[in-house]
Amino acid sequence: MSKPLLDPEQWYATLPTAFVSACLLLTDADDRVLVVKPNYRPYWMIPGGVIEAGELPQECAAREIGEELGLDVRAGELLVVQWSPPVDDRPRAMVNFLFDGGTVADPAGIRLQEEELDDAAFLPWDEAAARLAFHTAPRLLAARQAREAGRIVYLSDVFPATGG
Predict the structure, then answer these.
(1) Average pLDDT over every residue of 57-80
(2) Where in the numbering of this chain does the Nudix hydrolase domain appear (predicted)?
(3) At a CB cut-off of 8 Å and minimum separation 6, what does 118 contact?
C-alpha cells in the first residue's frame, strides 16, 4: 500500500531551501576587476546582492550595482553559477549567478553607497581573488575563464561544508 500524497503546501515545506544571489563582473579598460569592501564583512566581495521576491537574477545584479555603486549597468551573459553549502554564519546553501557587466567606461562615475560599502577598487585578477572570501574566490577565477572561453562555468563543492 502506498502512502497518500501530501497536499502541495505540506510537500513544499519538506523541500530544501537555499539563498539566491546575483553579481556582476565589472572590469576597467586595463582588465582589472571591480571588487567592493562591505562594512558588514571582513572580506571584499564581487558587487551584487541577494535576490528579492519576484526578481530575476539579472535584474537583481543590475539593481544592486545601481544602488551600491551608482552605475547604470545591464547584466550581460551569464558567466558562472555557483552552488555552495552553508558556511560561517550562513545557515543554508547559496546559489549565485555571476553575469558579465562589461567594462566600466568611466570609473570616476562610481558613487559608493556608504551605508553598506567602505571601499571599491579595480584590482588585478589575482589580487582581487586574494581579497575575497575563500568560498567566493573560485567564482571570480571561473568568471575569467568563462568570459575568455565564451561558455558558462558551473561550480559546486569548491570547499568543505564546514567552512574554513
Answers:
(1) 97
(2) 16-145
(3) 37, 38, 39, 112
- Residue 60: burial class (beta carbons within 10 Å; 0-12, 13-18, 19+): buried
* Rounded CA separation 104/18 (Å): 31
Q: Which of 104, 102, 126, 98 is nearest to 28 (CA)?
A: 104
CB 47 within 8 A of CB 24: yes
> pLDDT higher for 24 or 90?
24
Q: Mean of the per-residue pLDDT values for the chain?
A: 92
Separate counts of helices (H) and strands (E) for the chain = 4, 7
CA 61 to chain centre: 8
Per the model's pLDDT, the better-predicted residue between 157 and 87 turns out to be: 87
| 100-118: average pLDDT | 95
> pTM here?
0.89
pLDDT at 85: 87
All structural domains of the chain = 17-105+114-156 (3.90.79.10)
Q: Is 52 helix (H, G, I), strand (E, B) or coil?
A: coil
